[in-house]
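Fill-in record for DUF190 domain-containing protein.
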Amino acid sequence: MQSKLKTRALGKIKIYLEPTHKLRHGERSLFRKLFPKSAYLHIISDAKKEGILKASVYQTHSGYSNQGPVQLFSAEGDHSKLTLCVELIDTREKLEAFFLKHTELLRSKVVIYKEVEFWEAQ
């Protein structure tokens, strides 16, 4: 039996940020003042709430962002400045709406959009 391939166009955004980037707005309880939420966790949880098809976080092993110094992974080093990549996949319209809703959070971040093709076996 041979399956057929069904395709459709989707979009993908990649957001590059440091794991130490914390949210300092929103709920200001004592707990959140002492332990602010990581920006990448906020992005992932909001993507889930907004029905984004796929959200993932990837840790890099080396790199730099926004003209900063090159950061390298080492077993004994501090990895708090090593860039994370948050990847979201859905329709262009949903990704644009997500980006516009989070403009303040994403203002100084490198955000890349790319059209991708989604494959399904029939």
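KEY FINDING: The beta strands are 5-17, 54-59, 62-63, 71-72, 84-90, 110-121.
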